Automatic annotation (TrEMBL):
Taxonomy, superkingdom: Bacteria
InterPro entries: Ergot_Alk_Oxidoreductase (IPR051604), NAD(P)-bd_dom_sf (IPR036291), NmrA-like (IPR008030)
Protein name: NAD-dependent epimerase/dehydratase family protein
Signal peptide limits: none
Organism lineage: Bacteria, Bacillati, Bacillota, Bacilli, Bacillales
Domain NmrA-like residues, every copy: 2-97
Amino acid sequence: MTILVTGATGNVGRHVVDQLVRSGARVRALTRNPATANLPQSVEVVYGELTDPQSLVPALEGVTAMHLITFNGADSAPLQTGAEIIALAEKAGVRKVTLLWSGERGPVEAAAEESGLEWTHLQPPVEFMSNAREWAESIRSEGVIRGLNREVLSAMIHEADIGSVAATVLMEDGHAFKSYTLTGPEVLSVSDKLRHISAEIGRELEFIELTEAEERAKMRQAGIQEDVIDYVVGWHANPPKESYQVWPTVEQITGRPARTFAQWVAENREKFI
């Protein structure tokens, strides 16, 4: 049984690979840059580009299950090549696929649902804990973070928990044609997150509130597209209920509690000091 992991060098993909390796699976990792993948030695690293489906043909040979991201790794836009990818997977003999949600039902999800594959949607409607790395530089240099709203709430999820769920679904039966909503175990405000980081690194941290205009200017300077900026600003002004609702899915699927933000901070302490 060979399992193909797409997006294998991303925040979630690395955890999918690690969890599968720990479970004893034969793992093939798809990446645009095999030379810099830095994955476990037992993993077969291969080249492939999801926007160029024909490049996946060698990678799919002998694969029976696949973890598939549904967005373009370059700009996070929904992949438009879903029909081609799913058709190639079926032709290669793939039987099941986990689909990591991009935030909307796109061409990949539609193609999978219309195929003969056993599909499972993994839907984290919240931010990943790894997003906190965006604060690392200003915390190290100034002891501050800057943002729109210190009290905006999120049931943020540890990316390793998404990896654990994906690996479990790929290795076990009973998950076909289901959609799993994935969150962390607690609802936190930005103030709560700062308190956890402060306790871990032993420094008091300050939150500096930005105006909407200042936040937009900051994101534009970082090269973020206008539609993404609009989404982020709107989300902070009026976050959807799904973003601050805790779901028990991680523990139900994996048999272990979802990881807390305090655990994530402890694992990533060196980034903030």
